[in-house]
Amino acid sequence: MMTGTIIRRAGDKTAVLEVSRTTRHPQYQKKVVRTRRYLVHDPNNTAQVGDTVTVKESRPISARKRWIIISE
Description:
Blueprint lengths: L1 E8 L4 E11 L6 E11 L10 E6 L7 E7 L1
């Protein structure tokens, strides 16, 4: 399961989730923020831009959509 922020609505029953994580740079030991975007399935079209949601992995729903929203 992952937690992230909805940054865009991408059509019917689909949203774009951005997940950020903090790591240390291997040489300079400075904190570096890495972000990744996922297409998530929103079956009820309830997620709005700016919402923090939790998603879980599911079966492939489309070519790039493999996550489903479980809580908002």
